[in-house]
Design goal:
The protein is of the alpha+beta class. The protein has one domain: Ubiquitin-like (UB roll) (Roll). The chain is 21% helix and 17% strand. The chain has three helices and seven strands. It is elongated. The model has no long low-confidence stretch (mean pLDDT 89). The chain binds FE2/S2 (inorganic) cluster (FES). The site of FE2/S2 (inorganic) cluster has 13 residues, from loops.
Length: 147
């Protein structure tokens, strides 16, 4: 059995397994932590950067999916600074994503949509006319549609 250590998350003290991933602890405790590329069954990837948290003593926010738990860590998942960081990362994700929610099969079950809704419906700095592909279907025969 691994050693249990004391950590603080958003001001609440809790016990956690030393060396285990911070994101697992946050998910186990039902603490909201946005993430795209991490899954408990598949492990870490570290690409999306959405799981950023503030850790006392660290200069910059860290990704929770690649942060092993250490004794005495003081973590913040909420607050103006970390929410701004996540919002900026989300904006980067959205730059290269089509905005075809009305015709997308994943609409309504999409974390990107959920996180965008959470982040406050900010106005886009991107020209969205170039990002809608809703007219991509091409009729290539009497019974065939290319999509
Ligand atoms: S969940 Fe993607 S970097 Fe952590």
């Amino acid at each position: 059995m691994s050693e249990m250590v004391e950590i603080t998350v958003n001001g609440a003290q809790m016990q956690a397994s030393k060396g285990s991933l911070l994101i697992d602890k946050l998910l186990d405790e039902n603490i909201h932590i946005p993430h795209f590329c991490y899954h408990q069954a598949l492990g870490k990837d570290g690409n999306c950067r959405m799981c950023m948290v503030e850790i006392e003593g660290q200069k910059r926010p860290q990704i929770a999916c690649d942060t092993p738990i250490k004794s005495g860590m003081n973590i913040r998942t909420k607050g103006e600074n970390i929410e701004k960081v996540r919002r900026d990362i989300l904006e980067l994700q959205l730059i290269n994503h089509p905005i075809d929610c009305p015709t997308c099969d994943q609409a309504g079950e999409c974390k990107l949509q959920d996180y965008y809704m959470e982040s406050g419906f900010y106005e886009s700095r991107v020209n969205i006319d170039n990002k809608t592909n809703h007219e991509k279907r091409i009729d290539i025969g009497s019974n065939v549609m290319l999509d």
